[in-house]
């Protein structure tokens, strides 16, 4: 498993290097040092991002494998069910004041404070 991952990583690096050289060959770059510097920075950033993605993929693969192996527990019924309870709920709710009366009462208390 590790050997195949290392082989895949090696192939990915070779592919990346060939793509990079292919892009560099296709680009017509003047001897401007700013452009070359920016291109080198971009190349380093691309390599760094590719390495980070590979590490993240490996971490995720490991996490998923662990979850599938150890983390999923199949439900085992116990046969115990909760005891039925009768609850009393009010049949009629108390009436409230009209909306405007409630607002007036609220405003009077706020003004009084």
Structural overview:
With 113 residues, the chain is an all-alpha fold. The chain has three helices and no strands. The longest helix has 39 residues, at 33-71. The radius of gyration is 34 Å and the shape is elongated.
Give the key terms.
mainly alpha
Structural class: mainly alpha
What is the helical fraction, as a range of percent?
A: 55-70%
Low-confidence sequence ranges: none
How far from one another are the termini? Answer: 75 Å
Strand content: under 5%
**Shape category:** elongated
**DSSP E strands, number:** 0
Q: What Rg do the Cα atoms give?
A: 34 Å
The largest sheet, given as strand count, sense and whether it forms a barrel, is: none
Number of separate helices: 3
Question: Quick check: average pLDDT?
Answer: 83
The SSE string, one letter per element, is HHH
Topology of this protein?
Elements: H1 2-26, H2 33-71, H3 99-112
Compact overview of the structure:
By secondary structure, the chain is mainly alpha-helical. 69% of the residues lie in helices and 0% in strands. The chain is elongated and about 85 Å long.
């Amino acid at each position: 498993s590790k050997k195949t991952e290392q082989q895949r990583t090696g192939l990915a690096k070779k592919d990346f290097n060939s793509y990079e050289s292919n892009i560099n060959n296709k680009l017509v770059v003047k001897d401007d040092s700013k452009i070359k510097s920016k291109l080198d920075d971009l190349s380093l950033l691309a390599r760094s991002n590719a390495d980070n993605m590979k590490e993240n993929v490996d971490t995720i693969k490991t996490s998923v494998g662990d979850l599938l192996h150890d983390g999923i527990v199949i439900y085992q019924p116990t046969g115990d069910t909760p005891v039925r309870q009768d609850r009393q709920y009010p049949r009629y709710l108390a009436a409230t004041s009209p909306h405007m009366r409630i607002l007036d009462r609220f405003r009077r208390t706020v003004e009084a404070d």
